[in-house]
Design goal:
With 389 residues, the protein is an alpha/beta fold. It is globular, with a radius of gyration of 20 Å.
């Protein structure tokens, strides 16, 4: 398909229809906000959610790419504002014959909860539940929470007050490592709280969704297998996933898409004991970053490093499907590899790895060869290291 592909997100290829809901828990910054992807019952004429949920995210993206909000935010809204995710919005949850594994997903710098909808929906279509967090450490292009008003009873019909958390650059005079290191620890903490939230739901605790939503979290109570939990992320989210396995032993493994290794303390590397799958793109990683990955794989034979040839850093985001040739020339959202093939490699390698380390009773091991870097457009480790950083 390549450059001729239409500018739309792909439908997930697995056997389950995919449902999607936004969940906000808590009335402070210490709460959680995520988009949930899950297997759902088929529903005729189902509503499909917007990919960019609010105009404020366009302003945040403009800030992230260091362009003027005055012209860039309307341009982004024009380009992406009508795009919808091909899933069933608040679709009826589909209980499985067995409980579903859980994936906590962490976004990259300047992204937000919907930017990885293609890969999250693909995993959900294969029988996993995925909670795509929107981090509140100022690394999202924008996010918000809904503080309670004084004396508010939080009536369902009442309009919610929103407090927005903007994207923040490294402050002048501050070393980037210290700024990003603090963020990555906050992000890993949010991943841990995400897992705890599903523990609470499974134990029967009432977990109200602050947002006025038709999706009731209690339907998940007997449907999540909390012995089969992994954490996954892209770029900043990739290293967040690695750190989360150190902080939370219940995460059995991590999948790191083109991980940005810079923010993690060197002293923590010996503490990474869980298996990690590093799926790198061809032109993002530096030799120094790959050396850190190899430091982990040398200590754990189950940790794997592969590279998708012909891909760029944004190839693992939804932007690769939604930008034409003109935008691609500016933002490098596509490599030479067909975006659909890149998605297949990412999702299939992840599923094979998850089957191996979550003990899934599926047929994802048919893609085990990808974990060794064997196959078309994939290579073992990081053979080129031609970084664009």
């Amino acid at each position: 398909m390549g450059g001729a592909a239409s500018l739309a997100l792909p439908w997930a290829a697995g056997p389950h229809p995919v449902g999607c809901a936004d969940v906000m828990v808590g009335r402070t910054r210490q709460g959680l906000f995520f988009r949930l992807f899950y297997p759902c019952q088929p529903r005729e004429g189902a509503e499909r959610p917007l990919w960019i949920p609010r105009y404020e995210y366009c302003g945040g993206l403009a800030d992230f790419v260091n362009r003027s909000r005055r012209w860039c935010a309307p341009l982004l809204s024009f380009a992406f504002g009508a795009c919808r995710v091909p899933v069933s919005w608040n679709g009826p949850f589909k209980p499985g014959s067995t409980r579903y594994p859980l994936i906590i997903f962490s976004h990259g710098l300047g992204a937000f909860r919907t930017v990885y909808s293609a890969v999250c929906a693909e995993l959900a279509s294969r029988g996993l539940v995925v909670a795509a967090l929107e981090h509140r450490d100022h690394s999202a292009s924008a996010t918000y929470f809904c503080p309670a008003e004084a004396g508010e009873a939080a009536a369902a019909a009442e309009a919610l007050r929103e407090e927005w958390i903007p994207y923040r650059r490294v402050p002048p005079g501050q070393k980037e490592f210290h700024f990003r290191n603090k963020q990555v620890h906050q992000r890993a903490g949010e991943c841990m709280r995400g897992l705890q939230l599903f523990e609470d739901i499974s134990s029967g605790k009432s977990v109200p969704n602050v947002l006025h939503s038709d999706f009731d979290l209690s339907v998940l109570q007997d449907s999540i297998d909390l012995t089969k939990v992994a954490v996954m992320g892209h770029s900043f989210g990739g290293i967040t996933a690695v750190l989360a396995t150190v902080k939370e032993p219940r995460f059995r493994c991590a999948v790191a898409l083109d991980a940005w290794m810079f923010p993690l303390d060197n002293a923590l590397y010996p503490e990474v004991s869980k298996p990690v799958l590093f799926i790198n793109t061809e032109k993002f990683q530096t030799p120094e970053s790959v050396a850190k990955m190899k430091r982990l794989s040398s200590r754990n034979s189950q940790t794997k490093i592969i590279t998708i040839l012909g891909s760029v850093h944004q190839s693992q985001t939804d932007f690769t499907f939604l930008t034409g040739k003109f935008v691609n020339r500016i933002f490098s959202t596509r490599g030479s590899l067909d975006p659909y093939k890149c998605l297949d490699i990412n999702s299939r390698a992840a599923l094979a790895f998850l089957q191996r380390h979550l003990n899934l009773n599926e047929e994802f091991d048919q893609w085990d060869h990808l974990l060794e870097g064997i196959g078309d457009s994939v290579a073992a480790e990081a053979p080129l290291c031609r970084s664009s950083l």
